[in-house]
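Researcher: We plan to redesign the surface later, but first we want a full-length starting point. Tokens attached.
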């Protein structure tokens, strides 16, 4: 950041206000990258919050009356870097320049600082001795116009040599020798924040590509009024984005429920084929003697209509034995009817609730206190925290991740939740089964499949060395049975092994795998358990 002389009149009021922050401990560092507001809270018996808007939505600088309500979480790179290098240290110097503000911090042991939840946690602490006249050799010089009276920076902090013109210099507190850091803020619609270590090496630049700050910054004549306007503008802009993102997440959930309802109606529509399946099984059983061994199809006499019915057969099995296939499929459809109707009713109730929520979101004011209850309702209706966080859940990120405007890639699985909240992943099709098993599942995850029938691969993600809890195993086995050709059976055997023992043979058909060290669980399909699991579906 270059120094531009002649900024004293421009930034004098802000420099005077910031002078009170010198020697104070930095207790909190926050940012809302979506709006560009960066805030540092300092404490020396009185709490003050320095704010700078670096764009794209808010620009300027001032003393904030409070921290912004909508701000990024601790995992955001800018917030994480400021907390690691600034929080818990003392402000050694603040310089207001024509092209930005420089804050130098240093020292530290452990103090209690505010975290995202509003509680306290340990951070470096600095013991400050009584302020005394500078010791010989400290080399204090008169400050240039716009430079807040401050302590001499530690070696390597790189502050410009001050020039005379400001007046009396406040003697420095006696500080520890912990490494310091330097934060440079260039307010503006295309400004930037730069964090440097004590040696002047760049730690982080935000935005990563850098901004294009103006040649000169217009600082406010009233820093308190400017700060109040800055934090309100940031929260208003962020809340507008949060509302739009929440509306998108709710709309996506409604679309997913509509697809689910349509799929269940399709399943129920197949109940009309029960009579046809039973009739085909009876005709095949009665006329099997006329079907040649190894035939791939049979032409059966329809005694009711006097016509013919063509039936596809498995050439490797006797025709008479295959009659049971038609009877079993008819039984599965009949047994699954109650579950399907219960699921359809539950889905239609959820659709009604999500439609009401969608209307409430559209009518809500774009304010954090209005949006947070709506976000809680969305979570209760199956909108996952990941979806809300990706969309900018109120009070969490305050910013969308890079590329958040693009649609998320399609996952090869649907995720369900056990009663304990454990994730259960179910493949969406044959090729998706391969992707789930070979690309997403880890060697120590649990892999399940309905024994002896075609069906979805099911994976339970586990921590390394952990075993699968019994209730989660039963839930996963229930889903493996439901998403297989054994659907509708009262009892189903399900194979399960660690993913490390599952192999995909070269040239095998999509979804076909072999596995070793098989264990088998015979699971009784409980309607209530299955309905609970299906209701937790997270669309991928």
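Model: Full-length starting sequence:
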């Amino acid at each position: 950041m270059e120094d531009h002389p002649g900024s004293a009149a421009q930034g004098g009021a802000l420099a005077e206000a910031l002078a009170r922050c010198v020697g104070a401990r930095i207790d909190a560092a926050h940012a809302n990258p979506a709006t560009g507001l960066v805030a540092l809270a300092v404490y020396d018996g009185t709490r003050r919050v320095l704010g700078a808007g670096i764009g794209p939505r808010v620009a300027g600088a001032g003393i904030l009356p409070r921290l912004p309500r909508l701000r990024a979480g601790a995992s955001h790179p800018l917030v994480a870097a400021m907390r690691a290098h600034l929080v818990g240290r003392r402000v050694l110097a603040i310089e207001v320049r024509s092209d930005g503000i420089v804050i130098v911090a240093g020292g530290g042991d452990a103090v209690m600082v505010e975290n995202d939840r509003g509680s306290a946690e340990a951070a470096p602490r600095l013991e400050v001795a009584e302020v005394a006249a500078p010791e010989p050799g400290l080399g204090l010089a008169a400050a240039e116009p716009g430079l807040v009276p401050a302590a001499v920076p530690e070696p390597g902090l790189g502050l410009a040599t001050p020039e005379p013109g400001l007046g009396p210099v406040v003697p420095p507190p006696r500080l520890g020798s912990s490494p310091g850091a330097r934060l440079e803020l260039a307010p503006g619609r295309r400004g930037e924040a730069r964090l440097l270590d004590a040696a002047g090496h760049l730690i982080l630049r935000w935005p990563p590509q850098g901004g294009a700050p103006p040649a000169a910054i217009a600082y406010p004549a009233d820093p308190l009024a400017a700060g109040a306007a800055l934090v309100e503008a940031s929260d208003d802009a962020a809340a507008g984005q949060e509302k739009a993102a929440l509306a998108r997440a709710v709309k996506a959930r409604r679309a997913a429920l509509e697809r689910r309802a349509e799929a269940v109606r399709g399943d129920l529509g197949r109940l009309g084929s029960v009579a046809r399946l039973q009739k085909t099984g009876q005709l095949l059983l009665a006329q099997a003697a006329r079907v040649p061994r190894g035939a791939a199809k049979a032409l059966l006499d329809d005694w009711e209509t006097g016509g013919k019915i063509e039936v596809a057969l498995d050439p490797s099995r006797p025709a008479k034995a295959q009659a049971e296939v038609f009877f079993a499929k008819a039984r599965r459809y009949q047994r699954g009817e109650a579950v399907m109707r219960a699921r359809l009713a539950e889905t239609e109730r959820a659709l009604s609730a999500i439609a009401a929520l969608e209307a409430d979101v559209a009518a809500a004011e774009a304010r954090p206190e209005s949006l947070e209850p709506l976000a809680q309702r969305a979570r209760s209706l199956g909108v996952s925290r990941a979806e809300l966080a990706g969309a900018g859940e109120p009070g969490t990120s305050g910013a969308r991740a890079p590329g958040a405007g693009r649609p998320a890639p399609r996952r090869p699985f649907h995720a369900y939740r056990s009663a304990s909240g454990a994730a259960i992943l179910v493949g969406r099709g044959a090729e998706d089964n391969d992707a789930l098993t070979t690309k997403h599942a880890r060697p120590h995850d649990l892999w399940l499949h309905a024994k002896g029938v075609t069906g979805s691969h099911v994976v339970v993600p586990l921590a390394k060395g952990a075993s699968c809890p019994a209730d989660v195993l039963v839930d996963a086995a229930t889903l493996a049975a439901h998403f297989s050709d054994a659907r509708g059976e009262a009892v189903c055997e399900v194979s399960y092994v660690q993913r490390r023992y599952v192999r995909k043979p070269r040239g095998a058909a999509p979804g076909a795998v072999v596995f070793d060290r098989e264990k088998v669980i015979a699971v009784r399909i409980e309607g209530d358990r299955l309905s609970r699991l299906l209701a937790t579906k997270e669309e991928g």
